[in-house]
UniProtKB/TrEMBL annotation:
Keywords: Membrane, Transmembrane, Transmembrane helix. This is DUF2214 domain-containing protein. The chain crosses the membrane at residues 31-55, 75-95, 107-128, 149-167.
Length: 169
């Protein structure tokens, strides 16, 4: 589905153009470049998912003595900073085989799950999180917040699973 949307927005030869760039050739032909970039991508994901998981687990009721707002202020910069590793590294890995990645159902699912996780996070912050003062410390989060937190954890586990399965797809 994502490939169909992308192909309607970009010319059919866009993947061939990407694959023909010197950067793509270096990613394919360099002995150490792809593994190095992949390691950076994984480290970034560990930071992102670690920060998200700690926050989500707090919302789900773990460590109720920790203020939700303070935890969020501490973890959000780590999550955002991790994107500085994840996004460029992901784009570099994509350049190595753009046509194969674009047509791969597992890769498409990974992108869809990332989009869903982003939408879920935005809905959480624009919705139920606005009332966090009522459940910041010592109180249970409202059901809506817990649903967002559980969905977040499930979506990110799905993203990790898809990323790992790409090696076998």
């Amino acid at each position: 589905m994502i490939a169909a949307v992308v192909n309607t927005l970009l010319p059919p030869s866009w993947t061939a153009w990407v694959a023909g760039t010197p950067l793509a050739a270096a990613m394919r032909e360099g002995v150490w470049l792809y593994p190095l970039v992949e390691t950076v991508h994984i480290v970034g994901f560990a930071l992102l998912v670690g920060a998200v998981a700690m926050f989500d687990l707090r919302v789900l009721g773990c460590a109720r003595g920790l203020p939700v707002r303070a935890l969020g202020r501490h973890l959000l910069p780590w999550a955002i900073g991790s994107l500085l590793l994840i996004v460029p590294a992901g784009l570099l890995m994509f350049t190595s085989q753009p046509a194969q990645f674009a047509a791969n159902g597992t890769f498409q699912l990974k992108l869809a799950l990332i989009a869903a996780a982003g939408i879920n996070a935005a809905a959480f912050h624009l919705g139920v999180y606005r009332g966090v003062a009522r459940w910041d410390v010592g109180a249970a989060a409202p059901v809506g917040a817990k649903v967002h937190a559980l969905l977040s954890l499930l979506l990110w586990v799905g993203v990790i699973g898809c990323g790992r399965l790409l090696a076998y797809a």
